Amino acid sequence: MEKNNAIAALVALAHESRLDIFRLLMQAGPKGLPAGKISERLGLPATTLSFHLNQLKHADLVTFRRDGRSLIYSAAYPVMNALLAYLTENCCKGDAAACCVTEADTTCQTERVP
């Protein structure tokens, strides 16, 4: 992932509503969710949701497909994985395992900052 793409993705995710939308789509899996269901679950008006989905699409974090009259949105897993890889590629001088990137990592030898 290029630096500019990483910045665009991070900017898009920096808004609370867009982060909520993206997390919901990540939970939904590859099947995705119709826009109406996203709006319903998050309590966002259709116009507000449309604006935020466009921002996420612009950052390539979500994709959509038409199913009849509905638009089905899905998280772009390859882009999210590329963003995570970009953020951790130089972690701990290239030794990502030493960075303790998950809370469940019991092999972590460094202290966590509360």
From TrEMBL:
<dbReference type="InterPro" id="IPR036390">
    <property type="entry name" value="WH_DNA-bd_sf"/>
</dbReference>
<protein>
    <submittedName>
        <fullName>Transcriptional regulator</fullName>
    </submittedName>
</protein>
<keyword id="KW-0805">Transcription regulation</keyword>
<dbReference type="GO" id="GO:0003677">
    <property type="term" value="F:DNA binding"/>
</dbReference>
<dbReference type="InterPro" id="IPR036388">
    <property type="entry name" value="WH-like_DNA-bd_sf"/>
</dbReference>
<dbReference type="GO" id="GO:0003700">
    <property type="term" value="F:DNA-binding transcription factor activity"/>
</dbReference>
<dbReference type="InterPro" id="IPR011991">
    <property type="entry name" value="ArsR-like_HTH"/>
</dbReference>
<feature type="domain" description="HTH arsR-type">
    <location>
        <begin position="1"/>
        <end position="95"/>
    </location>
</feature>
<dbReference type="InterPro" id="IPR051011">
    <property type="entry name" value="Metal_resp_trans_reg"/>
</dbReference>
<dbReference type="InterPro" id="IPR001845">
    <property type="entry name" value="HTH_ArsR_DNA-bd_dom"/>
</dbReference>
<keyword id="KW-0804">Transcription</keyword>
<dbReference type="Pfam" id="PF12840">
    <property type="entry name" value="HTH_20"/>
</dbReference>
<keyword id="KW-0238">DNA-binding</keyword>
